[in-house]
Amino acid sequence: MLGRVNHIAIAVPDLKAAAAAYRDTLGAAVSQPQALPEHGVTVVFVELPNTKVELLEPLGEASPVAAFLDKNPSGGMHHICYEVDDIILARDRLVEAGARVLGDGQPKTGAHGKPVLFLHPKDFFGTLIELEQA
Amino acid sequence: MLGRVNHIAIAVPDLKAAAAAYRDTLGAAVSQPQALPEHGVTVVFVELPNTKVELLEPLGEASPVAAFLDKNPSGGMHHICYEVDDIILARDRLVEAGARVLGDGQPKTGAHGKPVLFLHPKDFFGTLIELEQA
Fold first, then answer.
1. Are strands B29-30 and B34-36 parallel, antiparallel or unpaired?
2. What is the DSSP annotation of B57-78?
3. DSSP label of B124
4. Mean pLDDT on A91-95
5. Using a CB-CB distance cutoff of 8 angstroms, which residues of chain A are in contact with residue B26?
6. How far apart are CA B33 and CA B76, in angstroms?
7. Is B130 tagged catalytic?
8. Which of A17, A55, A108, A118 qualifies as a cystine partner to A44, CB 3.0-4.6 A?
9. ipTM for the predicted complex
């Protein structure tokens, strides 16, 4: 069921400084910051040869990464996104296996314009998993 | 400088249960557990099309993931490993840029038999970064 790792998301308190560290210190190709107000984040994409890292900074009042940064003020790894062929099939299989889907269980349109779901980190050993229909 | 994401490492308190969740619930191909006493972990490889996830369980008294699990008893994302072409060149560039290499600054032989270094998470917004010579 799990396909490619689409991205690894890292929450950071200072997106400009984090993008500079990945570009200048680590020598990676980084995008310009993109504000995604409907997702409550500003994102910088770090392009690697086989996948990407997404640096996320909270945007607005109800950001999904704000609580994480309250607990981890320096930042940290926030979630892993895996691609799946059919998100409804994946969801139904996961729910049948006893895994909890966050929210109302319906896929939402994610930051890349594709249907996504998040799985409860307690069901996967502390890791927040995002599934994105490829 | 940063090349492929070689792996994403996830520390777990119960490797057997975690491997079963990735295999049976998430439908991924997982390896048999491999004890790596010289690295203080037992590892299960989760093979994805473009990279891999490594599930790590502490092994022995001085495991590098034991303190992480004390702080995060359910488990969690532990580090990201990026490939580099020349680990000495990468280290020298990083040190010149002010980044801190963990330990004595000399590459060690990592779990895949290749030279590796770890970078201080405080220099990279809470993310522990491993570099592995490809």
1. unpaired
2. EE-STT-TTHHHHHH-TT-EEE
3. G
4. 97
5. 1-2, 82, 94, 124, 129
6. 18
7. yes
8. A55
9. 0.95
A-facing residues of B in 45-104 (CB < 8 A) are 46, 48-51, 53, 55, 72, 74-77, 80, 82, 93-94, 97-99
Contact A49 B4 (CB under 8 A): yes
CB-side neighbour CA atoms (13 Å) of A69 = 20
In the structure, what pLDDT confidence band is assigned to residue B25 with cuts at 50, 70 and 90? very high
Nearest to A50 by CA among B131, B52, B115: B52
Structure tokens at B90: 């990468």
pLDDT tens, position by position, A12-22 = 999 999 999 99
Q: Are B103 and B41 in contact (CB under 8 A)?
A: no
State how far the Cα of A44 lies from the Cα of A55, in Å rounded to an integer.
Answer: 5
Amino acid letter for position B61: E
> Please, what is the average pLDDT of chain A?
96
State the Cα–Cα distance between residues B116 and B54, nearest whole angstrom: 16
CB nearest B126 (choices: A27, A76, A127):
A76
Average predicted confidence (pLDDT) for chain B: 96
Residues B117-131 have a mean pLDDT of: 97
Instruction: Compute the average pLDDT of residues B33-62.
Output: 96
Chain A contact set for B117 (CB, 8 A): none
Domains and CATH numbers, chain B: 5-133 (3.10.180.10)
What are the residues whose beta carbons fall under 8 Å from the beta carbon of B24, sequence distance 6 or more?
A: A97
Nearest chain A CA: its distance from B123 CA (Å)? 8
Is the model's pLDDT at B132 over the cut of 90?
Answer: yes
Task: Look at B77 and A72 and tell me if their CB atoms are within 8 Å.
Answer: no
- The single-letter DSSP state of residue B21 is I
